[in-house]
Amino acid sequence: MRVLSLLLAVVTFTSSATAIVRWAGVNEAGGDFGSKGGVYGTDYTYPTKSSVNYFASKKVNVIRVPFLWERLQPNLNQALNATEFGRLNAIVNYATKTKGIYVLLDPHNYARYNGQLIGSSAVPYNSFKKFWRLLATKYKSNGKIIFGLMNEPNTMPTEQVLTAMQAGVDGIRSTNATQLILVPGNAWTGAHSWTQSWYGTSNAQVMLNIKDPHNNYAYDMHQYLDSDYSGTSSSCNSPTVGSDQLATATAWLKTNKKRAFLSEFGFGANPTCYAAANNLLAYLNANHVWIGYTYWASGPMWGNYIYSVEPKQGGDAPQMTHALNKWLRKHK
Ligand SMILES: *[C@@H]1O[C@H](CO)[C@@H](O)[C@H](O)[C@H]1NC(C)=O
Ligand SMILES: *[C@@H]1O[C@H](CO)[C@@H](O)[C@H](O)[C@H]1NC(C)=O
What we know:
Elements: H1 2-17, E1 23-28, H2 49-57, E2 62-67, H3 69-72, H4 82-98, E3 102-107, E4 112-113, E5 116-117, H5 125-139, E6 145-148, H6 158-173, E7 181-184, H7 203-206, E8 217-222, H8 241-255, E9 260-264, H9 271-286, E10 290-298, H10 318-328
Parallel strand pairs: 1-2, 1-10, 2-3, 3-6, 6-7, 7-8, 8-9, 9-10
Antiparallel strand pairs: 4-5
Helix pairs in contact: 5-6, 9-10
Bound molecules: 2-acetamido-2-deoxy-beta-D-glucopyranose (NAG) (2 copies).
């Protein structure tokens, strides 16, 4: 008994000491830039090898790669555009196969195609299912892929988000792909508003009804550290704003035995925000219902964007120096 309880104590200690996230990384944006169409390399682009190399040197093990649904599939229900898929696929293969980094695929479409909501007569649920069936067919044998169903559904009934996202899950699983799927909610999938209802029925109530035959999904949430959580200003209200705003979603995840991935968070370059970011990242690593996070954002086309962590002249951005450097390498 004595030996056993000592052993249990050791096991318990070990498991809490290693209660860190599975995935830690960044968004590498650019494939989502411009309106559909646009000139490749001028209006939009996919991550560069040098950027992937830089983040590999920071020990990230996941990059989220945004792209536009309409570019990849110019005609609804039809084949993927081979040229465009080839561009995306080149960097996906480089990251996953050459560098061994997970790629989180992100149709950055706000639950819309050509501005029409999934579930409208122009964009039936089944079209979204077909889109994911096509994309998952391409990647079902690549174990380093994570399927992010959709970026930030908003301004629609939460019940419609559920039906749309279920169609996405069904499309992926119809290929027998088994990889992790990230499921967003309504209201830009904000963690702080997960249990609120100003946007319709709460995500907490509706999104619990998602069904995955492989039970390999996590909720996809976003949380910015600026005062209205919109990711548009460089100020942070307090050093604990991130963990404060994640508290209700975290409690909900624990109660319901679910997990989540924070696929967007961002903060300005100033001391209060650095403190808030360090606090947020410590919180995510300590609460194991959170399985991963990707910072918003890096990418070659940001210019002087307030949250950009794209290295300039090879040097780290201040957010990297003062917060991310310490945490991006913390993953299993
Ligand atoms: C396919 O993508 C290429 C490159 O973006 C583009 O030039 C071409 O027009 C697209 N094809 C269709 C049918 O949209
Ligand atoms: C998925 O697996 C089932 C059972 O093995 C098989 O019958 C089916 O053909 C597979 N589907 C695809 C698209 O590979």
